[in-house]
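Lab notes, practical 5.
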Amino acid sequence: MKQDLPYFDFILDLLAQNNPSIAKSFGRHVHWGYWREPESAICDDDDYARAAEQMTLELCGAAQIESGACVLDAGCGFGGTVGSLNERHNGTKLIGLNLDERQLGRARQLILPINDNLVEFCQGDACQLPFADNGFDRVLAVECIFHFPSRQRFFEEAFRVLRPGGILALSDLVPLTLFLPLARLVTEAPWLARFRYFGRCDVSYTIGAYRRLAARVGFSPLVERNITRHTLPTYRYLPKLLRSIAATQGETAVTADLVVILRLLGALALLNYYLLVFRKPLA
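Output from the prediction step:
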């Protein structure tokens, strides 16, 4: 099964062409970078690769993942988060799930189990998880929940498959309440379809909406961390990357417009990047 995500088509095509910049920056992780000191960001390929790995470390740290745990990474992309956990832990069961078999194919090639870990990648829907109840200690969703058809359904499924005391950790673009009407317009307006290079992205969930959703499903909030400032160099790096890919000028023009818009929204604190962590009760 293939999702309608033009940017993944773009990345996969360039990986097939052995583009070195794409291989380094998005060949493992397909998400924004995290810089501890964003003012010092170099914003070249190596710097971005390190920042993308650091984003994974920030989220996994917030999720309190330890060796021996059973972890599900929903929307796993090329398996970068699973790979990072595989390298840093032992005796751990790591499952990556994605709708797109092309992404899973790359993940299976890149990520082989080490350190007595078990690594599996499977095709499936994050809103209909193909797993038994109470089977995981941690469920992750790294910068992908805005693609899911229903956050409510995903939260319910994550709650079901987590063991009592288990943790759901995710990263998401979260709008300020006053920006919410425009965020909904971006998601729903047909005339903005030309900007949907990242697929259909529902960026209309505020922090308040997340709190209410967690309460309805039964989760307790643990972490609400606004890391927007640490992601802003992403918007300096992406235009440089796109300019270096001369053969795709028609596509990169639209993408460059998106990057400018996202950078402005982030700088104005209208659309913020959050790490969010929730716990399933012990009883």
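Observations recorded by the TA: The chain has a mean pLDDT of 90. Strands lie at 70-74, 93-98, 118-123, 136-141, 162-175, 220-226, 271-279.
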